[in-house]
Amino acid sequence: MSAGGVFMTPLMITISAQWFPKNERNMATGFCSAVAMLGSAATYIVGPIVVSSSPGEPPEPRAIRDRIMRLLYVCFGISVFVTVLVLAAFPKHIKPVSYPSKLSMASHRSAKLMHSLTVLVKNSEVWYLVLAFALSNTMSAPWSALLPSTFSKLHVPPELSAECGLFLIIHNFALSLTISTFADRAPGYSKELALISRLVSLVFLFWLMLMMNFHAKLTTTTLVCVILMAFPYCWCNQSLLYEMGAELMVPLPESFVAGYMTLLNNLFVDCTYVVLYLFPHFGDYWLHIGVFVFSVLSIIFLLLTTGWSKKDTAKTKHGHV
Could you count the other beta carbons within 10 Å of the beta carbon of residue 62? Predict the structure, then answer.
């Protein structure tokens, strides 16, 4: 189930760099990443239907298993159809639309894997950016995945948990498109836009921590509103960080940079899941604190990333954008 995602992000950044002009790249990357996440919103609609049962009757495991298998076959058919559609409709020859696109194609033809990885690992600016990207997801992704469990412990109806998860993704989709559009219209300010959105998220994550851990006033309405602000504002700027990484490491291929960021991000998130598996009660208290602390750390590392803005300004002065 995770094999496709390994290739999606690097290819998404490569298509953005080679097919779109400089002033449309953030929007292209943001749209692709937002739509990819929007697809997961269907689980909050389909899930309750699959596991539903007649009122007053307990769910039958065998019937639910049969429904899940049919759903998986439908998903497989859709995936095959989309793959065939891409193979049939995607142009066979790339015509670069801008000077940066030509550079991107040239870098992919001449790049050497080990040399590129060595350059990435030795660059401190890349580490700052990667840590800013990965730390924001390290705790927030597992927290959102445990949303039904958290609501259940608070005796919130499961229907509200599904609705909250659905609107969480829809809000993130809208914010991703909005911030990507602003980034394209205000070139050179991607870092500032990312910081603003993360600071907004940080305020609501702090509020969430107070409610969950320090007995601040908690109502169902307040909890849902805080969640719908905290996590979408944390995630909506990820496409900007991908583009910042690509700009920072020119002339290295964008796919290498995006793959590097995705690899470390997945590694950090997996470590959190391992901790949750080994220490099941970790999520009852420390996860709420961790999501706030890691968000603070991600902002600090983003502030330390200064090489991107200098490089982007220099490119603008020489007319390469």
Answer: 7
